[in-house]
Specification:
Layout (H helix, E strand, L loop, with lengths): L4 H5 L3 E2 L8 E7 L4 H9 L7 E6 L4 E5 L2 E5 L1 H4 L2 E5 H7 L1
Antiparallel strand pairs: 1-6, 2-3, 2-6, 3-4, 4-5
Length: 91
Amino acid sequence: MLKLKVRDAMTEQSVTALKAGEKARIVAITGQDVRTLRKLTVFGLLPGVEIEMVQTSPVYVLRIGNTELALDYEAAVGLAVVSCRQEKKEK
């Protein structure tokens, strides 16, 4: 499991708590079966990666670099993130 220093100092939340337009950094992926975890990592969802929430309904759409990825609630809820705003405040 990857451990990031930012994880110790900041408050984690599920990516499902983000609003459209908010940016965050992934700190952990939890509660996923192996098949779903493999799919998420293939699309670049890894600890340390910055994402942007594009939309939250009817599905969660995340932007990772130039890629937009739609996730249902079950896939999204296990993505633990810290807000990029919060990261800047802590530095």
